[in-house]
Amino acid sequence: MYIKQLSVFVENKSGRLAEITSIIANAGIDIRALSIADTTDFGILRLVVNKPDEAEQVLKAAGLTVSLTNVIAVGIPDRPGGFAETMTAIADKDVGVEYMYAFISRDSDRAYLIMRVIDNEKAISALQAHGCDILDGNSIYKL
Amino acid sequence: MENRIFNKEMECMPRKELEALQLERLKALVDYCEKNSEFYAKRLAAAGVTADKIKCLSDIEYIPYTTKDDLRDTYPFGMLSVPREKIVRIHASSGTTGNPTVVAYTREDMEHWTEQVARLAVAAGAHEGTTVQICFGYGMFTGALGLHYGLEKIGASVVPTSSGNTEKQLKFMRDFQTDAIVATPSYCMYLAEAAHSMSDKYPMSSYNLKYGILGSEGSTPEMRAEIEKHWGNGFFCTDNYGMSELNGPGMSGECLYRDGLHINEDHFLCEIIDSASGKVLERGSTGELVVTNLTKRGLPMLRYRTKDITNLNYEPCKCGRTSARMHKIIGRSDDMIKVRGVNVFPSQVESALIGFNEISPNYLLVLRREGYSDSMEVRVELIDGGLLENYGALVALQKRIHDNIKNILGIEIKVTLVEPNSIERFTGKAKRVLDLRNS
Question: How many CB pairs (< 8 A) connect A and B?
Answer without folding.
Answer: 49
